[in-house]
Design brief:
This protein is of the alpha/beta class. It is 52% helix and 8% strand.
Length: 259
């Protein structure tokens, strides 16, 4: 086998985990541009941010038992329709004036987005009552009536149907993959690249990969020019905040370049 052939064979055994399918396509295009018309076996690439059950079998191990007790997922479109029906039929209970179908659709989509964001960051609704400053407390109480759609009614609907949101299922799948790799450490070279890992599930996956014998993590956009004192002051309004949080979770020190 030629040197190039050995390199391609080695490359094809590498698994690269990327934040989404867009990043997956971009990396594939980059390999094509680099190799031109030369036939190349690309590394395995998975968009872990858009993970599916088929793609979670990343290590080639038998993980059928891991999925047996996973509830079915309720798709975003069905969730939107259920929210619309609830809003249209009980709008007065939620402190609303009479709403049109288009308004109900818009509100339903916003509620769905709020649920997905909460799932992403691992949040719950227990502290909602205390979020608003005292001067806005009365107005916030009206808002809380509307949010009962997702804090009170939606959990009951999910329980009745034996389902979970797609965003929760995605977190479950990522956690399953982390657990598999923690128990049965693969020897395959695995690279996590380009993610800020905002969700607890993604952070755990990154930490798991970093603990593997052939695991690597490549962070995109980490500012190494910023001095340490300024980096310590980075808060949630700064573009480096999510990377800072990830480094703290991984217990890794950033290495700023010396002047």
């Amino acid at each position: 086998m030629t040197k190039n052939g050995k390199l391609q064979k080695t490359l094809s055994k590498v698994l690269i985990l990327l934040p989404n399918r867009r990043a997956q396509r971009s990396l594939s295009d980059a390999f094509v541009k680099l190799k031109g018309m030369v036939p190349t076996l690309l590394p395995q690439m998975r968009a872990i941010g858009d993970v599916s059950e088929d793609e979670i079998m990343l290590s080639g191990q038998d993980v059928h038992d891991e999925f047996i007790n996973l509830p079915e997922v309720i798709e975003a479109q069905e969730r939107t329709m259920l929210f619309m029906r609830l809003i249209m039929s009980r709008y007065k209970d939620f402190g609303l004036e009479k709403v049109s179908l288009s308004q109900a659709c818009s509100l339903a989509l916003e509620l769905g987005g709020l649920i997905d964001t909460a799932q992403m960051y691992g949040l719950d609704w227990s502290n909602l009552k205390n979020l608003a400053p005292e001067e806005y407390a009365q107005h916030w109480q009206e808002t809380l009536k509307f949010l009962e759609i997702i804090t009170k009614y939606w959990p009951s609907i999910l329980e009745e149907r034996g389902c979970i949101d797609a965003s929760e299922r995605k977190n479950n799948l990522i956690n399953i993959q982390s657990n598999i790799w923690q128990k049965q450490k693969p020897l395959q070279r695995i690279i996590v690249a380009g993610t800020t890992a905002v969700s607890p599930a993604m952070k755990n996956l990154v930490k798991t990969v970093l603990g593997l014998e052939n695991g690597e993590v490549w962070l995109a956009g980490l500012d190494k020019e910023l001095d340490e004192e300024s980096f310590e002051l980075v808060d949630e309004t700064h573009s480096q905040y999510e990377l800072k949080q990830l480094l703290e979770f991984l217990e890794i020190k950033r290495s700023p370049k010396s002047c």
